[in-house]
Amino acid sequence: MLHKKLSLIILLGYATLLNAQQNIGDYGKNQFFLGAEANLLSRTAFTHPATINSTDKIKGLQNANDGIYPQDSFAYTSLKFYGDYDYNISDEKKLKVSLGYFGGVAYTYNGAYPVPDDTRKNNPEAIEFHRFLFYRAFIGYDDPNNFLRIGRFIVEDDDWIKSTAQGGEYIYSGDNFLLKALAVSDLTTAFGAWVWDFQNKSIPNGLYHLSLEYHTQNKKIKIRPYIYSVPDYYTIPGFSFKASVGDKNTFLWYTYITASYERFHHKAYSPGTKLLFPFLSPGKDAGNIYILQSFSFLKDYQVQLSYFKNFGNFNAMLGTYGNPGMVGIYDNSYYANLWMSDFLAKDSQSFLVNATTTTLKNTVLGLFYRGTWSYRSTENTAGILASYNWTPNVTLKGVLAYYLDETFAGYNSKFWIPTKDVPAYARGPITKTDTPKNLGDRSYFMFNLIVRL
Question: Rounded CA gap, 86 and 66, in Å?
């Protein structure tokens, strides 16, 4: 218990450190920027039955055997340090060098935090781990028409990839069009506490992306055909459409639609491939469509309605690194060794509603709901969210969510196929294959403290 308290005190202490981004030097053509960021994330679940990682191992094994996987609780803190150097060739042209270092510490105070494979291999009982990496390290070039990054950089304004990539990105911007080319060897992600090292499990031969966007002069309408490809594994052509009408101070109508088709290649069927959910056949092809309709009015109010539908087993792990609506897919239970919701499951469909207001000074308040229906379960989550800028340097965020998962009879939410069809070697301690329908309460409260300058 003392160890837990000391760990949490240390986490809180880290989170009060400096978060800054300042221009520390402007010497003619040379500019220097330094920054630092501290982030504390804590999630507390409302149900805590014993689990495999608990001290009551017998009960934990029985819960897993019955398919009972409640929410987990953990605390996580991270520090980021980064620096930029700009060399101004002219008023509109610049060379850029950027370097950023990330350090994080996670501590599971009740539950099964997703300990990385390398840590789990050396210590299966681990409840604490550290992650350190250079998350940003690139050289670049910017001018009014050209944008180039080579190294490790954050991919932005993309339909599917919203993470840090290792590779190269080039964007050419014309009067009414934008050409984007992306080639990456590895990807990582850092959504709150979910921090992975750079890896290529989901893109073993690298990921290549090309898109061509046409937009009106005022950028109120954007049409973007695109293609993603992992050679020998899959190719995904698709398109997105964005349109906005009006003004948010009175009434703004915004529509976003993206649709994709996925064709699998021969290596996608290889045993042990990490592209798809385990033991679930990819089929020959798949697809999806995402539709978002947003209304902003009277400056301080916004309502969003959205629908997401998978046709076949589209995921191919592409959605791991982002999704068109940036839907939170990382709020599921790690007890089930499950780090994504059924939002990306085979043939699933989801309906989402979000309503927010900024009427209170420095505050965002909102309500949300997500309903997901798939072949193995139904998920319903609803709650409230709040964000408060205490000072220009400090932001507090909170999410209170009611989360109910209904797993159908014959399924264990640890697996993506009926339990009876899972090979015996992959079941571990789970022996039951005829489990009844199970209602799991995965409700939680999440708190986030961000310190910046």
Answer: 58
How many structural domains comprise the chain? 1
Please tell me whether the overall predicted TM-score, pTM, comes out greater than 0.90 for this model: no
Which structural domain, as residue segments, surrounds residue 253?
2-451
What is the CB neighbour count within 10 angstroms for residue 360? Answer: 11
Q: Which residue has the higher pLDDT, 414 or 327?
A: 414
CB 112 within 8 A of CB 53: yes
Segment 299-345, tens digit of pLDDT: 999 999 999 999 988 866 666 676 777 676 667 776 665 556 788 88
Q: Decide: 244 and 252 in contact? Cβ < 8 Å.
A: yes
Are the beta carbons of 70 and 333 closer than 8 angstroms? yes
Give CA separation, 427 vs 64, 275, 287, 414, 421, in Å: 10, 20, 30, 9, 10
For 183-224, write each residue's pLDDT tens digit: 999 888 655 555 667 777 778 889 999 999 999 989 999 999
CATH assignment of the domain containing 286: 2.40.160.10
